[in-house]
Write a structure and sequence with these properties.
single chain; mainly alpha; 14 helices; about 0% strand
Length: about 325
């Protein structure tokens, strides 16, 4: 006999995402001013779907910063896969088709979380057979939550200052223009254009989704999802270093990647590198969490992120040995 859960009340974590989804949809459909439509697109494409699906994987509200980082990565992955699915529908690609796909992804995530929420887990459960393979140094004193928050804010300010100002100052260069022109063909219903790009469809699908929902495209809008990925790749490296070693190692890794010229350059253009630098390490981080906490649903999350990296470029194949280990 099937027993249904009682309907959620306003105090449960399923209501505010639904309200946020309705507001964002209203801004898009109601042709709100361009700034508000961009904020709505940002919520729908880079935060909300991943946030609601994360409740299906684990429930650790104390680690809010890590959850936001994971939510953005998963949302980008779901957006790219959702846009690719929408492209294959008959006829030209429309705003309504993309909105239906995004809303369906978020609502299914809410329903799945409501019915199949995992038990809350906090303490790491290391398998005895694997623990000797990963010896750990003595744990140093843990910094306070306020100190970690200050570190994250400082990293965010530094990396954003190097990647966001005057993001659209230069015209599209050759590779960016090629991806956007193929995106125009996708909007016109030429789904085979996905296979005409030499690098991978993610590079044209990510800016195309912002184009559809905001109703406009320029250099800054097209480059923003890649700049966001580049910014959060720094935060991901901080979390990995903190998990594997200590917060000092995480801070050193984050600072080095924040000021790396290669990372800054590719974080300011609509190219695949920023997606791989973010989603690839985030996938490894999820696989590590799956092992450390025995949250094996995180293996699914890591696979989704790795698959999205491969949709960006076959360079992501270099991550597979580390993921397999």
């Amino acid at each position: 006999m099937c027993v249904m859960k009682p309907l959620p009340n306003l105090k449960q974590p399923y209501i505010w995402p639904l309200l946020l989804l309705v507001v964002a949809d209203g801004l898009i459909i109601g042709q709100a001013p361009s700034a508000l439509r961009f904020v709505a697109a940002l919520v729908l494409l880079t935060f909300l779907p991943g946030w609601v699906w994360l409740h299906f994987f684990f429930d650790q509200p104390a680690r809010i910063a890590e959850r936001i980082n994971l939510a953005v990565g998963l949302s980008l992955a779901l957006t790219i896969f959702g846009a690719m699915f929408t492209v294959y529908l008959p006829g030209p690609l429309t705003v309504n088709q993309l909105l239906i796909t995004i809303n369906a992804t978020a609502v299914i995530g809410l329903l799945t979380t409501w019915q199949f929420s995992p038990p809350r887990t906090h303490a790491p459960l290391l398998p005895r057979t694997l623990a000797p393979l990963l010896p750990r140094p003595p744990a140093p004193p843990r910094p306070s939550a306020n100190r970690i928050l200050l570190i994250l804010l400082a990293l965010l300010l530094l990396v954003a200052a190097l990647r966001l100002p005057r993001l659209g100052y230069a015209e599209f260069h050759e590779d960016e223009a090629e991806a956007l022109m193929l995106g125009v063909r996708l909007l016109q219903g030429e789904d085979y254009a996905l296979f005409l790009h030499r690098k991978g469809p993610a590079q044209m699908l990510a800016p195309m989704t912002f184009w559809l929902l905001t109703g406009q495209i320029n250099e800054a809008i097209a480059r923003f999802p890649f700049a966001l990925s580049s910014i959060l790749s720094v935060i991901t490296l901080f979390f990995i270093g903190r998990r594997w070693f200590n917060w000092q190692a995480g801070l050193a890794a984050g600072l080095l990647w924040a000021i790396n010229g290669y990372a800054i350059g590719f974080g300011r253009m609509a190219q695949y590198q920023a997606l791989i630098f973010f989603l690839g390490p985030l996938a490894l981080y999820c696989l590590y969490l799956a092992w450390e906490y025995r949250l094996f649903r995180f293996q699914i999350l890591g696979i989704i992120l790795l698959a999205t990296s491969l949709l960006a470029h076959f360079d992501a194949l270099l991550l597979l040995p580390a993921a397999g280990y």
